[in-house]
Description:
The complex is a heterodimer of chains A (143) and B (182). Chain A is mainly α and 143 residues long. Chain A has helices spanning 2-11, 29-39, 58-72, 77-88, 103-129. Chain A contains five helices and no strands.
Amino acid sequence: MRRLGLLLACLSFTTLALALDAERDFTDPELQQRYETLAQELRCPKCQNNTIADSNAPIAADLRRALRDQLGAGRTDEEILKFMTDRYGDFVLYRPPFDARTWLLWLAPGLLLLAGLISAAIVIARKARAPIPEDTDTGTDIA
Amino acid sequence: MWRYVLPVIGFLVLAGFFFVGLGRDPAALPSPLIGKAVPAFTLPSVEDPERMVSSDAYRGRMWVLNIWGTWCPECYYEHPVLMEIARRGDVPIVGLDWKDQREPAQEWLKKLGNPYHANAYDEDGRVGIDWGAYGAPETFLIGADGIVLHKHIGQITLEIWERDFEPHIQAAKKDHAPGRTS
Lengths: 143, 182
């Protein structure tokens, strides 16, 4: 059990490794923290299931550099995200916004689960109400 | 009866979604620049570092921006189409040589021909980001008023040019016909 706990503890550190950039970290720890957080909020437009934090693509490196420039220039998080969506659209946000176009995307898993549970409940309820069949000897006798 | 019909309906609905969805290109991001003002830039030209290429120079006429690079195979394949578009002479093509190197770019133009009215050299890719570039080739149509009209991601063909770009060009020509106030 202790080894399992140790293994889980080791695995949980994997998301903190962010050594893709050759540039040094920001000396200001708050800026560095914002950089790491925002890098996980932006999608790489080329390898589209990765954030720019964990993509090797050149465009991801370019966007990380743009992120550093924006942070260095003192922009707020909202301004930076707007900078990105102005150029790449909502798709560059790793978490799509919840609005009139994306509500189905967000709610579909929950709705499908709900539909599945309701169907299961109906089927179980029906089976519960059906009379238990008499134990008639319909099998072949192996005697 | 319903227990047989409902799954079929469910299947047809899903099939409909898949039919539409799988026919789309997931890598093609719609551009938020459409309908907005062109991202202004001034960069040295590919051929001559002393000469500047600026988006402002094209105000007042329709033009095309083509983002390309010598490292991009699709740009190689679409090059003959760009030559043909340049030959037709309807709109000038301005190149944005994106994250490339000068010498290979100059060699490329010498070897394959130069369809570009002007070619801006964007070595570090900063201007490319302003245009939302993520994979060359990308081709934009910009109106005379400086508003981005259309973006095509990927290799351009004459068919795509005639289907997606020409209508805007012809419409603009009509607006400038004599007797009309623009």
